[in-house]
Amino acid sequence: MTYSPHTDADRVAMLEAIGVDSVDDLFADIPESVRATRFDIPSPLTEQEVRAELSRLAGRNRIPEVSFLGAGAYRRLIPAVVDEVVGRAEFATAYTPYQPEVSQGTLQATYEFQSLVCQLTGMEVANSGMYDGATALAEAALMSARITGRQRVVVLEGVSSAYREVLATYASGPDLVIDPIAPGSLPLDEGAACLVVQQPNFFGYLEDLRRCAEAAHAVGALLVVSADPISLGLLRPPGHYGADIVVGEGQALGNAISFGGPYVGLFACRQEHLRQMPGRIAGRTLDAEGNPGFVLTLQTREQHIRRERATSNICTSEQLVGLACTIYLAALGRTGLRQVAELCYQKAHYAAARIAALPGWRLPMEGIFFQEFVAVGPRPPAEVNAALLRQGIIGGLDIDGRIPNGMLLCFSELHSRHDIDRLVAALDSVGGE
Amino acid sequence: MARNALPPVRRGLPALLMDRSVPGRHASTLPVCDVPLSPLPPADLLRDDLPLPEVSEGELVRYFLHLSQLNYAVDTTFYPLGSCTMKYNPKWHDEVAGWPGFAQVHPLQPEATVQGTLRLLYQLQQFLSALTGLPAASLAPLAGAHGELAGMLIIKAYQRAHGQDQRDTILVPDTAHGTNPASAAMAGFKVVTVPSDAQGNVDLSALKDAMNERVAGLMLTLPNTLGLFEPNVLEVSRIIHEGGALFYGDGANFNALLGQVHVADLGVDVLHLNLHKTFSTPHGGGGPGAGPVLVREPIARHLPAPIVQVAEDGTFHLVTPESSIGRIGGFAGNFGVLLRAYCYIRSLGAAGLREVSEQAVLSANYLRVLLKDVLALPYERTCMHEAVFSAALLKAHDVRAHDIAKRLIDYGFHPPITYFPLIVPEALMIEPTETESKETLDAFTAALSSIVREAREQPEWLRSAPHGAPVARLDEARAARQPDLRWRPAAP
Fold it and tell me: Could you say which of B69, B157, B165, B449 would form a disulfide bridge with B302 (CB–CB 3.0 to 4.6 Å)?
């Protein structure tokens, strides 16, 4: 099943028009000595057979009734309208809007996305999205280095280790120096291109953004904030603290966790840095008859125009995932997103109070947390999680390597009080085993 | 000419979400809070405004469906963007990607609980290796250009591991996609452009001249963006390998080579594939894609993390290669795209995949022959998956490639890529793919013939096209000069 409509008669007619005897003749430029006929791929299956095979594979994944795993990928309630609209073939099977007159749907939706990202983050301009939150953060660091002409990227230790690893990979290109610091070691030294902060941090707690902004700006460095977009339903946005670049993982805005992708990176900055921003940007303009319309704009920043002098190599990114974010934010709206954020906060605080009261359990960190926090139990998290799994619960992320016996637990609007009580009871019994 | 008499159809664009927002409306229902309330953080940490739209669910659906109808898409029209491989995307793949058994799997779950997903990814690595002859793969890169960046960092790591730190240059042919030089630069390399010869191949003497002890690698798109396969590819490979450089293959156009050749046998050391193109996943209006990178064995230890390995007990694990360039994305790749590619390979098999390239190349050559007398064909030879034409002759009528593209819209076709590759003046780059029928190709040819006739007889009609799109030709210069990139409240 190749999905090709060519019949034998079509092929004969087309070959005749071309003036060759066989399709093989069309491949004559490939040296005969390397033409291959054997490829070690299993025999084809019908759609039904592949479905059956995939059904067996999916069956080997454990999808728990309830999960308390977050750490950068979040299960949430997703209104059905999100998938309905994202599944529209007019959006899903179009491509980059190089021809704006027949891509106004994609372009206007992108303009909406940029607008909502700005409104959520409190920033002035945003692009159409990056690959994911981690690469958005890495690109923000590269952008800071270009703007300041400095080579040193200072990263608070509260930034996710996965994000820091991606940053290190990207930084190895222009040979930037990555300098991890504890919040206590502010202020910064001269020579920093930027201070990178995650809000809330990897452990779920709020960083002092006002102090971070002062420390960065005092030495002429930019403040880069990687913000959880759901938390921005409740918290004062980074733009109000003077952040220069705000990035984030957009997955939680209406997208399935899907084993880590496809996700979308949110990317917003201040107007003055617009021309150093990576990625595609939609803009509103006028058509030849004076009516408004949308185009891709400021393309002289991009690889297809500027080649090796582009702000980034990014080309295809995550347009459709960004569309899901746009629909999600519109579906929840002004009151809905606030409600979701408050639900996350309340569930997490209820759980924290109950877990902290369990014998053998404690919360080692102080401060204000949003939807995640670290709990330290009497036994290694791997053992705790195995016991939870036997009860149909996926526990928190095992962070024993950073905090002995620590696990990072995440709560959301999906968890009922009953779910949390089940977790607490299970943790209690694990502790006592 | 009756078509020309049609009055312009301008439906106009719907008002933006924020402009249709009415306080009190909403399109979602959330659970009530069933736990005792804790005090919120201090007020100075909370936002006092949340400027998001307030609309009802019905309005929301109608708005976005209206937007969707302003697009051309593969499912609604022929969409022959060159080098983009806009083929039909099987619907059942989308459905499978939404199964809870895949879509609800968290990337940080214990490995013992995600063996189905890991096994699928492992098999996909094996399939891609089998199709390319390159034994090691990482599925982590999230798009084609992301795979290029990974590949460039791999080459940098490999050269440094061999004490070749001075190799700071990447050679890139002048036909290359813009991502190639941009990716090399992002990895910290200098870029030197290698010219093409009169046949559209890499100029071998220029390549020899460019080779020196500073060159770390050559990036070559196979087939190149002219739609041509480099007949001297083995000689190219010999020249760069003898010079101590690595051969990077850009697999953006792999649709032409499926089941025809193991690119490893061409001398390719590092390759990325655009799964969303060749392996048929919806392009999403500009992503998501997936750009796995494949390498020869001695280079495998530099692959980006993670890769999937199988242990002796048959269990699957995510591992970091010993001298990995590191993690390149937050998790383990764009699983939803990788899954669709798996479905495609599994349901086509080796023979089906070979048939894909045969039909795609047949279609492109059919168009090449039909159109070579309509537009000029700068390289008169057999093409692979796409054909590049020039509209330079129409400049005499003050008609540009751009104008032809816009007029195609009125005939119901999405325009091809224009003004690329850069070495062809007034280029129109057309990739029909294997999933378009002969009737569609014939109709497209008829439309272009008619447009070329119009160019001679009433060129102003082309210069003002499109006439039947939701908007007239858009002022891109104005957009760049006066950036309007987000909604703002109307002045009171």
Answer: B157
